Predict the structure.
Amino acid sequence: MSELIRIPAPDGVAPAAAYTHVVMGTGRFVAVSGQLALDEDGKLVGEGDPAAQARQVFENLRRCLAAAGATFDDVVKLTFFVTDMAHMPAIRAARDAHLSPDRLPAASAVQVAALVRPEFLMEIEAYAVVSE
C-alpha cells in the first residue's frame, strides 16, 4: 500500500464531513472508469433502487481496483455522478461499507441530467495510488 497523506481541513478551508479535501502520495497511479450497476453478465442490478445500485457499483469498483493490485485503502479520489442528489445517502452507505471513516478520499458529487441509459441512477469513478 502506498503511504497516503490526508489533509482533511487545509488552513482557511472549512472541514469536510464526508470526504477529505486533499489526499496525496507517491506510487503507481490507477484510474478506474465510471462504474455502473451492472453484474458480471452486464445485467442491471437494482432497477429504481439506489441502495442496490450503489452496492453493485462499489462491488464493481472493488473488483476493478483488485485487478490493478489496489484496494479501497489506496483510493485518493472518488467522483459520483448521480441523476438525483437524493441518492447520496445510499451511495455513502455503500461507500462506508468499503472505506474507513478515518481514511476517506477526496470526493466530488455531480448531479447530471442523464447517464448512458435511463435506468442507471449513478456512475462512480475512482483514482488510486499504489506503492511501486
